[in-house]
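EI: anyone free to look at a 203-residue chain?
SC: sure, send it
EI:
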Amino acid sequence: MPRSTVARRGEDYPLPIWWHITSHLTSVGDVHRFSRVSKGMAELLAYRRAAMEAEHYMESILNLPRWCDSPHPARSCVESAIRRGRSLDEIDALVRGCSSVSIFYLTGTEPITRNGPALFVAAEMNRVDVMKLLLASGSHHDLRYPVRQGCIDLGHYECVSSYKTCRNALCVAREHGSRDAEAFLLKQGIDDLCDAHCARWHH
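SC: here you go
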């Protein structure tokens, strides 16, 4: 059935009926398709969609020589929701869904690849409300990644080098002119790692 037809008819059904229907879905793709029926459906399925995505991630790393070699999706469900300006309630459900499987999926302690940790995205988009939510859910305000050689390869909270070779959420906030996020992070006691490399970083 065409998605437009599903969306048009879907608005006529109460959410409990949709919940019963979607409880039989078993694939991430089907859950995503039903999530696009309406805003209400997106919020209804947010937790489950996030949990399934995180489960797929965890399954993908089981047979790898090193768990940190696992590739992330080009954009996680939490990152997409933040960039699209979704409500805090929906993002909260997504964060809880991911965290129910693995907090590492959001904290980003593996090598930064195609998408940054959710806290970095929230800093970029100046979403202080989301940053507070992420910190309350287990993300660390001072998570950082190396920009060049001289420090730990993985995401970490303290540098082994006195040189400013790493980049944290404060760098992201300043790069994108997110003044509210910058002020919030400074109040949290985040290390000021910003240097000339911040302006040259293209994420």
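EI: Confidence is low (pLDDT under 50) at residues 3-8.
SC: 👍
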